[in-house]
């Protein structure tokens, strides 16, 4: 199902066009069947795969990669990497196995908070860009860091909404909004999205897309939640394109002139 509005344009990253602006992870589901059903319901065209958690050699018969490769654009990621060297080695392996050149870089600071290590992330990004990878890069919601990543060649910058897997939503909408306004590359909110309204908020801020996993996989009904996330992404994008009304004082939605008895007391 295409999420593209006739008056909108596709999202372009590294020369690839996406009509769906929802990117979905493939981990934490109860079964492969549930994974595939949820991905289908989400309408996504691009799915992330944690390279350190799948059988890249496929020695034991069909696996997740086999189920995904002909249906989606794969976005290999470096989830679980805690240094630039580790992340770069992981993505080089993906290239050798001809999985993809489009990759998601994620270098974490520690295993408890799962917050990004911005110095190691920038270091890894520069190496990967020099080697010809198209890199979507996970980071915090700091505008200065986001600008450095964009200047270093990131194809898209992916600030967190909140901590990975927390489901706390967009904690700093002002920070995300400033990143969107400042950067010339696509901005995709990644991490912390817990429900459909979080997706809508991100898109209403002007983000080019949203990436999520746990919010779908750990819902009571992942397939139904995937459909809700799909619709929220579309609604949020439409609201952004429409342009919201200004915030301010109360204003009557109906004219007061011409009423029997004149306008209400106190009206201008």
Features:
9 helices; three-stranded parallel β-sheet; alpha/beta
Number of helices: 9
Mean pLDDT: 88
Quantity of strands, as a count = 10
| Secondary structural class | alpha/beta
Provide the low-confidence segments as ranges: none
| Strand composition percent | 15-25%
Distance between the termini: 50 Å
Strands of the largest sheet, in order across it? 5-4-3-10-9
**Mind summarizing the main beta sheet?**
5 strands, parallel
* Rg of Cα set: 21 Å
* Silhouette: globular
Share in helix: 25-40%
The H/E string reads EEEHEHEHEHEHEHEHEHH
Can you lay out the helices and strands and say which pair or pack?
Elements: E1 11-13, E2 16-18, E3 22-25, H1 32-42, E4 46-50, H2 64-68, E5 73-77, H3 84-96, E6 102-105, H4 118-130, E7 134-139, H5 143-151, E8 156-159, H6 173-182, E9 188-190, H7 196-204, E10 209-212, H8 214-217, H9 222-242
Parallel strand pairs: 3-4, 3-10, 4-5, 6-7, 7-8, 9-10
Antiparallel strand pairs: 1-2
Helix pairs in contact: 1-9, 3-4, 7-9
Question: What report would you give on this structure?
Answer:
The structure is a single chain. Helix 1 runs parallel beside helix 9 (222-242) and helix 3 (84-96) runs parallel beside helix 4 (118-130). The protein has 9 helices and 10 strands. It has helices spanning 32-42, 64-68, 84-96, 118-130, 143-151, 173-182, 196-204, 214-217, 222-242, and strands at 11-13, 16-18, 22-25, 46-50, 73-77, 102-105, 134-139, 156-159, 188-190, 209-212. It has a 5-stranded parallel sheet. The mean pLDDT is 88. With 268 residues, the protein is α/β, with parallel strands linked by helices. The longest helix is centred in the C-terminal third of the chain and has 21 residues, at 222-242. The chain is globular and about 80 Å long.
